Amino acid sequence: MSINRRDWLKTAFLGSAALTLSPLEFFAKETPNFNLLKNSNETIRLCFNENPFGTSPKALEAMHKCLSLSSMYDFKFADVLCEKLAEKNQLKKENLLVSAGSSFLLELITKYVSINKGHFIIPDPCFTIFEPIAEFLGMSKSVIPLNDKKKIDLEKMKTSIQKDTKLIYICNPNNPTGDLLSRQEIENFIKSIPDNIIILVDEAYIEFTTQKSLSDLVDVYKNLIVTRTFSKLYGFAGARLGYAIGHPGTIKNLKKLQSWSGAEISVVTMAGAIAAMEDQEFITKVLNNNQKVKDFTVSEFNKRGIKTIPSSANFVYFSLEKYKGDYFKKLKDAKILGGKTYEEDGKWTRISLGTMEEMRQYFDVIS
Questions:
Q1: What does the alpha-carbon distance between residue 276 and residue 233 come to, in Å, rounded to a whole number?
Q2: Does the global pTM surpass 0.85?
Protein backbone atom coordinates (compact mmCIF):
# COMPACT_ATOMS: atom_id res chain seq x y z
CA MET A 1 0.00 0.00 0.00
CA SER A 2 1.33 3.45 -0.91
CA ILE A 3 1.78 5.86 2.00
CA ASN A 4 2.52 9.49 1.29
CA ARG A 5 5.28 11.31 3.15
CA ARG A 6 2.95 13.43 5.27
CA ASP A 7 0.94 10.43 6.50
CA TRP A 8 4.15 8.55 7.28
CA LEU A 9 5.48 11.45 9.34
CA LYS A 10 2.26 11.49 11.35
CA THR A 11 2.43 7.74 11.85
CA ALA A 12 6.06 7.90 12.96
CA PHE A 13 5.34 10.53 15.58
CA LEU A 14 2.15 8.87 16.84
CA GLY A 15 3.85 5.49 16.88
CA SER A 16 6.57 6.85 19.11
CA ALA A 17 4.12 8.28 21.64
CA ALA A 18 4.98 5.55 24.12
CA LEU A 19 8.66 6.37 23.75
CA THR A 20 8.70 10.17 23.97
CA LEU A 21 6.22 12.85 24.94
CA SER A 22 4.19 14.53 22.22
CA PRO A 23 4.90 18.28 21.80
CA LEU A 24 1.70 19.26 23.60
CA GLU A 25 2.33 16.89 26.51
CA PHE A 26 5.90 18.12 26.69
CA PHE A 27 5.02 21.82 27.01
CA ALA A 28 2.09 21.11 29.32
CA LYS A 29 4.41 19.72 32.00
CA GLU A 30 4.96 22.09 34.94
CA THR A 31 8.74 21.79 34.70
CA PRO A 32 9.67 20.86 31.13
CA ASN A 33 12.80 18.77 30.73
CA PHE A 34 14.32 20.07 27.51
CA ASN A 35 16.59 17.03 27.29
CA LEU A 36 13.48 15.15 26.16
CA LEU A 37 13.92 16.79 22.76
CA LYS A 38 17.13 14.82 22.38
CA ASN A 39 17.47 11.06 22.05
CA SER A 40 16.92 9.49 25.43
CA ASN A 41 18.86 6.45 26.58
CA GLU A 42 15.83 4.37 25.61
CA THR A 43 14.94 5.80 22.20
CA ILE A 44 17.05 5.90 19.03
CA ARG A 45 15.78 8.02 16.11
CA LEU A 46 16.94 6.54 12.83
CA CYS A 47 14.03 7.65 10.65
CA PHE A 48 14.28 11.35 9.77
CA ASN A 49 17.82 11.71 8.32
CA GLU A 50 18.68 14.13 11.11
CA ASN A 51 22.26 15.08 11.93
CA PRO A 52 23.18 12.85 14.93
CA PHE A 53 26.30 14.92 15.59
CA GLY A 54 24.34 18.01 16.61
CA THR A 55 24.67 21.63 15.57
CA SER A 56 27.78 23.75 15.11
CA PRO A 57 29.04 25.15 18.46
CA LYS A 58 29.61 28.50 16.73
CA ALA A 59 26.05 28.48 15.47
CA LEU A 60 24.69 27.70 18.94
CA GLU A 61 26.73 30.54 20.40
CA ALA A 62 25.38 32.98 17.81
CA MET A 63 21.82 31.78 18.41
CA HIS A 64 22.19 32.23 22.15
CA LYS A 65 23.44 35.78 21.70
CA CYS A 66 20.48 36.61 19.46
CA LEU A 67 17.82 35.32 21.85
CA SER A 68 17.53 38.81 23.31
CA LEU A 69 16.29 40.02 19.89
CA SER A 70 13.31 37.65 19.96
CA SER A 71 10.92 40.44 20.95
CA MET A 72 11.58 42.39 17.74
CA TYR A 73 10.53 41.91 14.12
CA ASP A 74 13.23 41.23 11.55
CA PHE A 75 13.29 43.66 8.64
CA LYS A 76 16.83 43.22 7.29
CA PHE A 77 18.28 39.97 8.64
CA ALA A 78 16.84 37.90 5.79
CA ASP A 79 18.65 40.17 3.33
CA VAL A 80 21.92 39.68 5.21
CA LEU A 81 21.40 35.91 5.17
CA CYS A 82 20.67 35.97 1.42
CA GLU A 83 23.84 37.97 0.82
CA LYS A 84 25.87 35.37 2.72
CA LEU A 85 24.21 32.50 0.84
CA ALA A 86 24.77 34.28 -2.48
CA GLU A 87 28.44 34.72 -1.61
CA LYS A 88 28.72 31.05 -0.61
CA ASN A 89 27.10 29.91 -3.87
CA GLN A 90 28.77 32.55 -6.05
CA LEU A 91 25.42 34.03 -7.08
CA LYS A 92 23.48 37.28 -6.70
CA LYS A 93 21.16 37.98 -3.80
CA GLU A 94 18.33 38.16 -6.36
CA ASN A 95 18.85 34.44 -7.06
CA LEU A 96 17.94 33.50 -3.47
CA LEU A 97 14.75 32.92 -1.53
CA VAL A 98 14.98 31.81 2.10
CA SER A 99 12.31 30.07 4.16
CA ALA A 100 11.67 28.07 7.33
CA GLY A 101 12.89 24.78 5.86
CA SER A 102 13.06 23.59 2.24
CA SER A 103 9.77 21.67 2.59
CA PHE A 104 7.97 25.02 2.72
CA LEU A 105 9.69 26.00 -0.53
CA LEU A 106 8.56 22.79 -2.23
CA GLU A 107 5.01 23.72 -1.25
CA LEU A 108 5.46 27.32 -2.43
CA ILE A 109 6.78 26.22 -5.83
CA THR A 110 3.91 23.74 -6.12
CA LYS A 111 1.40 26.54 -5.54
CA TYR A 112 3.21 28.69 -8.10
CA VAL A 113 3.05 26.09 -10.89
CA SER A 114 -0.55 25.11 -10.08
CA ILE A 115 -2.06 28.58 -10.57
CA ASN A 116 -3.72 27.33 -13.77
CA LYS A 117 -3.72 23.69 -12.62
CA GLY A 118 -1.87 21.37 -15.01
CA HIS A 119 0.25 18.24 -14.65
CA PHE A 120 3.37 17.28 -12.69
CA ILE A 121 5.85 14.38 -12.85
CA ILE A 122 7.55 12.73 -9.87
CA PRO A 123 9.75 9.67 -9.35
CA ASP A 124 8.75 6.90 -6.95
CA PRO A 125 9.95 6.44 -4.31
CA CYS A 126 11.09 9.98 -3.60
CA PHE A 127 10.61 12.87 -1.14
CA THR A 128 7.22 14.06 -2.39
CA ILE A 129 5.84 15.90 0.62
CA PHE A 130 4.22 18.44 -1.74
CA GLU A 131 2.29 15.80 -3.72
CA PRO A 132 -1.03 16.02 -1.76
CA ILE A 133 -0.99 19.82 -2.09
CA ALA A 134 -0.57 19.66 -5.87
CA GLU A 135 -3.46 17.19 -6.15
CA PHE A 136 -5.65 19.29 -3.85
CA LEU A 137 -4.99 22.29 -6.11
CA GLY A 138 -6.30 20.30 -9.07
CA MET A 139 -3.13 19.08 -10.75
CA SER A 140 -2.85 15.65 -12.34
CA LYS A 141 0.32 13.58 -12.02
CA SER A 142 2.52 10.90 -13.52
CA VAL A 143 4.45 8.72 -11.06
CA ILE A 144 7.56 7.18 -12.59
CA PRO A 145 9.10 4.09 -10.89
CA LEU A 146 12.86 3.85 -10.48
CA ASN A 147 14.69 1.85 -13.11
CA ASP A 148 16.18 -1.59 -12.45
CA LYS A 149 19.31 0.05 -10.99
CA LYS A 150 17.19 1.96 -8.47
CA LYS A 151 17.95 5.24 -10.25
CA ILE A 152 15.49 8.00 -11.15
CA ASP A 153 14.38 7.21 -14.70
CA LEU A 154 14.90 10.51 -16.51
CA GLU A 155 14.02 9.08 -19.91
CA LYS A 156 10.63 7.81 -18.75
CA MET A 157 10.00 11.14 -17.03
CA LYS A 158 10.69 12.86 -20.33
CA THR A 159 8.30 10.59 -22.27
CA SER A 160 5.59 11.27 -19.65
CA ILE A 161 5.42 14.97 -20.49
CA GLN A 162 1.94 16.14 -21.49
CA LYS A 163 0.68 19.35 -23.10
CA ASP A 164 -0.15 20.79 -19.68
CA THR A 165 2.92 19.57 -17.75
CA LYS A 166 4.11 22.36 -15.43
CA LEU A 167 6.61 20.67 -13.11
CA ILE A 168 9.16 17.86 -13.05
CA TYR A 169 10.68 17.05 -9.67
CA ILE A 170 14.08 15.44 -9.10
CA CYS A 171 15.63 14.79 -5.69
CA ASN A 172 19.41 14.44 -6.01
CA PRO A 173 20.77 12.55 -4.13
CA ASN A 174 17.43 10.83 -4.05
CA ASN A 175 15.57 10.26 -0.81
CA PRO A 176 15.06 7.41 0.19
CA THR A 177 17.58 5.59 -2.05
CA GLY A 178 20.63 7.86 -1.67
CA ASP A 179 21.42 7.40 -5.37
CA LEU A 180 23.19 10.31 -7.08
CA LEU A 181 22.53 11.35 -10.67
CA SER A 182 25.55 13.05 -12.24
CA ARG A 183 25.46 16.77 -12.88
CA GLN A 184 25.83 16.10 -16.61
CA GLU A 185 22.90 13.66 -16.64
CA ILE A 186 20.60 16.27 -15.14
CA GLU A 187 21.87 19.13 -17.29
CA ASN A 188 21.37 17.04 -20.45
CA PHE A 189 17.85 16.28 -19.22
CA ILE A 190 17.11 19.98 -18.63
CA LYS A 191 18.31 20.84 -22.14
CA SER A 192 15.83 18.34 -23.59
CA ILE A 193 12.80 19.70 -21.72
CA PRO A 194 10.61 22.59 -22.97
CA ASP A 195 11.56 25.77 -21.09
CA ASN A 196 7.98 26.40 -19.97
CA ILE A 197 8.23 23.39 -17.62
CA ILE A 198 9.79 24.02 -14.20
CA ILE A 199 12.57 21.56 -13.34
CA LEU A 200 12.75 21.44 -9.55
CA VAL A 201 15.95 19.81 -8.25
CA ASP A 202 15.94 19.13 -4.52
CA GLU A 203 19.57 19.09 -3.31
CA ALA A 204 18.90 18.48 0.38
CA TYR A 205 21.81 16.02 0.55
CA ILE A 206 24.21 17.35 -2.11
CA GLU A 207 26.63 18.57 0.56
CA PHE A 208 27.35 14.97 1.54
CA THR A 209 28.88 14.51 -1.92
CA THR A 210 31.78 16.06 -3.82
CA GLN A 211 29.53 16.79 -6.80
CA LYS A 212 29.04 20.42 -7.77
CA SER A 213 25.56 21.81 -7.25
CA LEU A 214 23.41 22.83 -10.21
CA SER A 215 22.96 26.24 -8.60
CA ASP A 216 25.35 27.95 -11.04
CA LEU A 217 23.02 27.01 -13.93
CA VAL A 218 19.88 28.88 -12.81
CA ASP A 219 20.71 31.92 -14.95
CA VAL A 220 21.44 29.67 -17.93
CA TYR A 221 18.20 27.66 -17.62
CA LYS A 222 15.43 29.97 -16.44
CA ASN A 223 13.12 27.03 -15.74
CA LEU A 224 15.54 25.45 -13.22
CA ILE A 225 14.94 25.86 -9.48
CA VAL A 226 17.29 24.30 -6.92
CA THR A 227 16.32 23.88 -3.26
CA ARG A 228 18.76 23.38 -0.39
CA THR A 229 18.39 22.90 3.35
CA PHE A 230 20.26 23.50 6.60
CA SER A 231 18.46 20.55 8.24
CA LYS A 232 20.95 17.84 7.29
CA LEU A 233 24.64 18.81 7.18
CA TYR A 234 24.25 21.82 9.47
CA GLY A 235 21.94 20.16 12.00
CA PHE A 236 19.11 22.74 11.78
CA ALA A 237 16.20 20.28 11.43
CA GLY A 238 14.50 21.79 14.49
CA ALA A 239 15.65 25.36 13.86
CA ARG A 240 14.12 25.27 10.31
CA LEU A 241 15.95 26.94 7.46
CA GLY A 242 16.02 26.28 3.71
CA TYR A 243 16.56 28.25 0.54
CA ALA A 244 15.68 28.19 -3.14
CA ILE A 245 18.03 29.21 -5.94
CA GLY A 246 16.59 30.33 -9.25
CA HIS A 247 16.55 32.92 -12.00
CA PRO A 248 15.80 36.40 -10.55
CA GLY A 249 12.52 36.55 -12.48
CA THR A 250 11.38 33.23 -11.02
CA ILE A 251 12.40 34.20 -7.50
CA LYS A 252 10.53 37.49 -7.87
CA ASN A 253 7.36 35.64 -8.89
CA LEU A 254 7.67 33.16 -6.01
CA LYS A 255 7.92 36.06 -3.56
CA LYS A 256 4.56 37.34 -4.82
CA LEU A 257 2.99 34.31 -3.14
CA GLN A 258 4.42 35.40 0.22
CA SER A 259 2.97 38.20 2.31
CA TRP A 260 6.42 38.92 3.76
CA SER A 261 9.30 36.95 2.30
CA GLY A 262 11.56 35.43 4.94
CA ALA A 263 9.40 36.57 7.85
CA GLU A 264 8.67 33.01 8.97
CA ILE A 265 12.33 32.51 9.94
CA SER A 266 13.38 33.64 13.42
CA VAL A 267 16.33 36.01 13.91
CA VAL A 268 17.80 33.31 16.16
CA THR A 269 17.82 30.74 13.35
CA MET A 270 19.26 33.19 10.83
CA ALA A 271 22.07 34.24 13.17
CA GLY A 272 22.92 30.60 13.74
CA ALA A 273 22.92 29.83 10.01
CA ILE A 274 25.32 32.65 9.21
CA ALA A 275 27.71 31.36 11.88
CA ALA A 276 27.26 27.72 10.81
CA MET A 277 28.43 28.45 7.26
CA GLU A 278 31.72 29.71 8.69
CA ASP A 279 32.36 26.70 10.94
CA GLN A 280 34.38 24.54 8.57
CA GLU A 281 35.80 22.49 11.44
CA PHE A 282 32.31 21.28 12.39
CA ILE A 283 31.33 20.64 8.76
CA THR A 284 34.45 18.51 8.22
CA LYS A 285 33.73 16.60 11.43
CA VAL A 286 30.17 15.79 10.34
CA LEU A 287 31.23 14.66 6.87
CA ASN A 288 34.03 12.46 8.21
CA ASN A 289 31.84 10.88 10.89
CA ASN A 290 28.99 10.33 8.44
CA GLN A 291 31.32 8.48 6.05
CA LYS A 292 32.75 6.28 8.83
CA VAL A 293 29.27 5.37 10.08
CA LYS A 294 28.03 4.72 6.53
CA ASP A 295 30.97 2.43 5.75
CA PHE A 296 30.30 0.52 8.99
CA THR A 297 26.58 0.27 8.27
CA VAL A 298 27.02 -1.06 4.73
CA SER A 299 29.64 -3.52 5.96
CA GLU A 300 27.28 -4.86 8.63
CA PHE A 301 24.46 -5.25 6.10
CA ASN A 302 26.83 -7.12 3.79
CA LYS A 303 27.80 -9.51 6.61
CA ARG A 304 24.11 -10.36 7.00
CA GLY A 305 23.53 -10.84 3.27
CA ILE A 306 21.28 -7.79 3.10
CA LYS A 307 21.33 -6.00 -0.27
CA THR A 308 22.02 -2.24 -0.19
CA ILE A 309 22.13 0.64 -2.68
CA PRO A 310 25.28 2.82 -2.78
CA SER A 311 24.41 5.95 -0.82
CA SER A 312 25.54 9.53 -1.38
CA ALA A 313 23.66 10.81 1.67
CA ASN A 314 23.28 10.25 5.42
CA PHE A 315 21.07 7.17 5.14
CA VAL A 316 21.18 3.73 3.52
CA TYR A 317 18.50 2.05 1.37
CA PHE A 318 18.31 -1.73 1.68
CA SER A 319 16.12 -4.74 0.93
CA LEU A 320 14.36 -6.90 3.53
CA GLU A 321 13.44 -9.50 0.92
CA LYS A 322 15.78 -12.14 2.39
CA TYR A 323 15.64 -10.92 5.99
CA LYS A 324 14.43 -13.56 8.42
CA GLY A 325 12.24 -12.28 11.21
CA ASP A 326 9.91 -9.35 11.78
CA TYR A 327 12.26 -6.41 11.22
CA PHE A 328 9.85 -3.63 12.17
CA LYS A 329 8.65 -5.44 15.30
CA LYS A 330 12.24 -5.83 16.46
CA LEU A 331 12.78 -2.09 16.04
CA LYS A 332 9.56 -1.26 17.87
CA ASP A 333 10.36 -3.59 20.77
CA ALA A 334 13.83 -2.05 21.05
CA LYS A 335 12.41 1.50 20.91
CA ILE A 336 14.15 2.35 17.65
CA LEU A 337 12.35 4.62 15.19
CA GLY A 338 13.40 3.27 11.81
CA GLY A 339 11.19 4.01 8.83
CA LYS A 340 8.75 2.24 6.54
CA THR A 341 8.60 0.01 3.45
CA TYR A 342 8.95 1.95 0.20
CA GLU A 343 8.71 -0.75 -2.46
CA GLU A 344 6.65 -3.83 -1.79
CA ASP A 345 8.49 -5.65 -4.58
CA GLY A 346 11.75 -6.38 -2.79
CA LYS A 347 10.60 -4.85 0.50
CA TRP A 348 12.99 -1.91 0.33
CA THR A 349 13.39 0.38 3.31
CA ARG A 350 15.72 3.09 4.59
CA ILE A 351 17.70 3.62 7.78
CA SER A 352 19.06 7.01 8.80
CA LEU A 353 22.65 7.03 9.99
CA GLY A 354 23.07 7.70 13.71
CA THR A 355 26.24 7.80 15.75
CA MET A 356 28.53 4.77 15.64
CA GLU A 357 27.23 3.63 19.02
CA GLU A 358 23.60 3.95 17.87
CA MET A 359 24.31 1.90 14.75
CA ARG A 360 26.00 -0.81 16.81
CA GLN A 361 22.89 -0.99 18.99
CA TYR A 362 20.74 -1.12 15.84
CA PHE A 363 22.63 -4.10 14.42
CA ASP A 364 22.53 -5.91 17.77
CA VAL A 365 18.73 -5.58 17.62
CA ILE A 366 18.20 -6.78 14.04
CA SER A 367 20.71 -9.64 14.19
A1: 10
A2: yes
